[in-house]
């Protein structure tokens, strides 16, 4: 396997733009400024996914990475790493508390977050799903950027109005999830899950950003201007959990995007919210694909999701890096 990834000239140019939303390491920044990201997920049966997502966020460079999960999941996830802040707030059925009550402490955390990832290890328990619906509504009111994956997409499939028209939202479906989402909004893509299908689904959902994962990743908010292809070389092993590296990476890039839009440093260019949202989604895709390539080169068919976590900082340095250090 070659040392450098294979990618199109268009991808290389987009990565240069992604670099523009990455904050420099300045002494004036204090703890938390380089990213406060939370992952909502983790239930009795699923503890790996929220860990992989939150660790990808942390290894990419977020200052503070949280996991909001159920108590049984919290006990397990805390043993995986002391670097994560784990909050045993969520509850599965049966519980005497209604979703609105359970969502209250999560909603209280929103003002302290730059971005929120929902779905890894969430499960389909009604109480978990309804609690998350309350949090999504509150996050929209506070204009918190969202990344939705896995069983959060199942929630969107049943209640598309939760995210429709919210242009600070990124959905990351695989091909099967993409088809279900399209069906849920009455969209006939005629089997097209590529560029035009991705645009159509994003439009049907009112301009949310869709990252359709596949052999190449298509990314679109429904407009021609913000529709791009992420075609960096990836690995050939499709083990479960690789999408969690994607969600965590996008979460951190959205936090950095927030800093860029606020002018936290002497930024380059004058990119707006729509373009920078696309770049955060694209950057997360590119980093994940490179993690997969690097891990597959070492592990081959034995590759597991945890192998991608170790490659996150290497992928960042290769594709983006500090301005003077990118290897592309």
In short:
This protein has 328 residues and is an alpha/beta fold.
Number of strands: 9
Strand content: 5-15%
In whole angstroms, the N-to-C terminal distance is 17 Å
Number of helices, counting only DSSP H or I runs of 4 residues or more? 11
Radius of gyration: 18 Å
Secondary structure category: alpha/beta
With strands numbered from the N-terminus, the spatial order across the biggest sheet is 3-2-1-4-5-6-7-8-9
Largest sheet: 9 strands, mixed
Order of H and E elements: HEHEHEHEHEHEHHEEEHHH
| Global mean pLDDT | 95
How does the overall form come out from the CA principal axes?
globular
Low-confidence stretches: none
Helix content: 40-55%
Description:
The protein has 328 residues and is an alpha/beta fold. It has helices spanning 9-20, 48-60, 71-80, 99-109, 126-141, 151-158, 175-184, 195-204, 242-262, 273-299, 305-319, and strands at residues 36-40, 64-68, 85-87, 115-118, 146-148, 169-171, 209-212, 217-220, 228-230. It has a nine-stranded mixed β-sheet, sandwiched between helices. α2 (48-60) runs parallel beside α11 (305-319). It is globular, with a radius of gyration of 18 Å.
Q: What is the fold's blueprint, element by element?
A:
Elements: H1 9-20, E1 36-40, H2 48-60, E2 64-68, H3 71-80, E3 85-87, H4 99-109, E4 115-118, H5 126-141, E5 146-148, H6 151-158, E6 169-171, H7 175-184, H8 195-204, E7 209-212, E8 217-220, E9 228-230, H9 242-262, H10 273-299, H11 305-319
Parallel strand pairs: 1-2, 1-4, 2-3, 4-5, 5-6, 6-7
Antiparallel strand pairs: 7-8, 8-9
């Amino acid at each position: 396997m070659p040392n450098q990834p294979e990618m199109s000239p268009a991808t290389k140019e987009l990565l240069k733009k992604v670099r523009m939303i990455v904050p420099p390491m300045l002494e004036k920044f204090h703890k938390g400024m380089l990213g406060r990201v939370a992952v909502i997920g983790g239930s009795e049966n699923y503890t790996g996914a929220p860990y992989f997502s939150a660790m990808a966020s942390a290894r990419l460079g977020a200052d503070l990475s949280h996991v909001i999960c159920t108590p049984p999941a919290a006990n397990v996830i805390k043993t995986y790493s002391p670097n994560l802040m784990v909050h045993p707030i969520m509850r599965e059925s049966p519980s005497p508390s209604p979703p609105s009550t359970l969502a209250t402490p999560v909603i209280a955390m929103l003002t302290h977050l730059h971005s929120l990832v929902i779905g890894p290890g969430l499960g389909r328990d009604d109480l978990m799903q309804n609690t998350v619906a309350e949090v999504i509504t509150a996050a929209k009111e506070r204009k918190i950027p969202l990344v939705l994956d896995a069983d959060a997409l199942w929630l969107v499939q049943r209640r598309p109005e939760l995210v429709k028209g919210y242009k600070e939202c990124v959905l990351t479906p695989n091909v099967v999830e993409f088809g279900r989402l399209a069906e849920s909004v009455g969209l006939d893509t005629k089997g097209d899950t590529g560029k035009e299908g991705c645009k159509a689904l994003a439009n049907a959902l009112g301009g949310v950003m869709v990252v359709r994962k596949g052999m190449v990743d298509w990314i679109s908010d429904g407009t021609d201007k913000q529709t791009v292809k992420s075609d960096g070389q990836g690995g050939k092993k499709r083990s479960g959990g690789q999408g969690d590296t994607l969600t965590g990476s996008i979460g951190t890039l959205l936090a950095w995007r927030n800093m860029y839009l606020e002018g936290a440093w002497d930024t380059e260019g004058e990119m707006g919210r729509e373009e920078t949202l696309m770049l955060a989604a694209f950057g997360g895709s590119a980093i994940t694909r490179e993690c997969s390539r690097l891990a597959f080169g070492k592990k081959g068919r034995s590759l597991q999701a945890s192998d991608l976590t170790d490659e996150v900082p290497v992928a960042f340095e290769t594709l983006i890096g500090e301005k003077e250090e990118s290897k592309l």
